[in-house]
Amino acid sequence: MKIIYINRLDxxxxxxxxxxxxxxxxxxxxxxxxxxxxDITYAGGSIMQGKNVLCSRPVARTRLSRxxxxxxxxxxxxxxxxxxxDSHLLYIRYPYASLAFVLFLRKYKRMYPDSKIIxxxxxxxxxxxxxxxxxxxxxxxxxxxxxxxxxxNRIVSFDQNEQIFGIHAVNISNGxxxxxxxxxxxxxxxxxxxxxxxxxxxxxxLDRFLYGLRAYLDQDTGIRPGVSLSIVGTEDKAIRNLxxxxxxxxxxxxxxxxxxxxxxxxxxxxxxGVGTLGIHRKGVVLNxxxxxxxxxxxxxxxxxxSLDPDFPQGLEFVYYAPANDEAIDLSDLLKSIPADAxxxxxxxxAMQSLSWNERMAKILSDL
Length: 367
What we know:
Number of strands: 15
Order of helices and strands: EHEEEHEHEHEEEEHEHEHEHEEHHH
Strand order of the largest sheet: 4-3-2-1-5-6-7-9-8
Shape: globular
Helix content: 25-40%
Mean pLDDT: 92
């Protein structure tokens, strides 16, 4: 089957590197299943099909011009290039509904009536993610998503939904490609190191960990190892201000975006990973976070607060905190999972349980 994977995230933006890797892993899984897969992406001002430029925009001088290009002109461009999109299946990462998106889908279906369209929605419900002016985007999405069922065959969901927007949903969890080369184990007894990966927002609940770290440090329990946190990902002013207000500057390090050997070095020294601790703030119950899978692939125990279908309660390397806004009890965590927990069994679990092959096979067989 010939498949085209469409996403409009900016591939030149380091902020999306983890998501890009996920999409590459999905493509590779479909190829291993015997399908021919190409993609349409956006990078550095151009819409690309492989190495071919479909459309380009002038250098964006404002955030508004970039927003207009990605949310309106992106799909108007593809609408003009339909002759290049002949395929059995379009697999689209949900860009939020708009007039331009619906017009593109309608014209594609008219030109290729036998082709199928799958839309993947990374988080649902998602409206609570948007603040300020982006609420307008949610209003536009609300208007036009009611037209999607006329054109879309399946929705891929990472929750437990029978239907979304009146369209049959295929429910999966995120997978990950576990590299053959193991990350070295460079842990020391002191300090105990936590690592927090991600594009940080309020629903990730990193504030809960920081309040817990402050409470742990304030406990008078005699001699014990120190604790530190490495934050890898988006610079977040609110998090940085909280670190300062809690006087945690000597215990928290901000790395910015890391990948490759630099990321492996941080993971190799870490004892635990910090997962999603605030998804309940969006009204979401199940959470299939990529960071959880990254920790498991690296052999790190980790903590989270929302149910993750691939990490049921009872696993020795997962600590489930309550799904509320209380500070994380680090003393209880350290008693529950030893800092020197062996890494090989965790990595083996990831290799056995988190493959993209079975997830993509489930999606494609449901058509």
